[in-house]
């Protein structure tokens, strides 16, 4: 089969999948998870049920695919911010700010939908990519003297992850911004500390 044909077919499949995913997400956010059926998704997407069953087994699998697409977009966004040629402290601030905003969006899903979208272990590879990205940005900021060097970088990554995790519970942009500032304050060099803190 010619390569152009393969690409056209794959492009069509991607469009169909994304149309179904977006339709399901729109229905769930408007009516709630329990109110959405495959028939309703098909009608909203303008497709037959038979067509969407070729791609997805149920509503949950559609939402999982939608969420993975969002995760991929977020990882790409954070990666782009981390690679900006700028002063390390500003790069760190922009990465942590964007990461906090992503977590704040997660908090808007509600408990039932949030539990479905964020099952333990399902996005481990993406989380590892974010950890590596944070490790790289933090290392650069440590080397430039803008982040404390008395703590191992893996501890700093864990600190940022947990500190910014509180953004899930915040409803305002101001609250998220404040959390980012508090996190950055904890990263600044502390001349009063004499003994290095070893990573555990």
UniProtKB/TrEMBL annotation:
Q: Does this entry carry the keyword Endoplasmic reticulum?
A: no
Using the record, list the residue span of the signal peptide; answer none if the entry has no such feature: none
Phosphoprotein keyword on record = no
SUPFAM superfamilies reported in the protein's UniProt record: Homeodomain-like, Tetracyclin repressor-like, C-terminal domain
Pfam families for the chain: TetR_N
Q: Where is the HTH tetR-type domain?
A: 14-74
Q: Which sections of the sequence are annotated for DNA binding?
A: 37-56
Q: Which UniProt keywords apply?
A: DNA-binding, Transcription, Transcription regulation
The protein, known as = TetR/AcrR family transcriptional regulator
Protein species of origin: Actinomycetospora chibensis
Q: What is the organism lineage in this UniProt record?
A: Bacteria, Bacillati, Actinomycetota, Actinomycetes, Pseudonocardiales
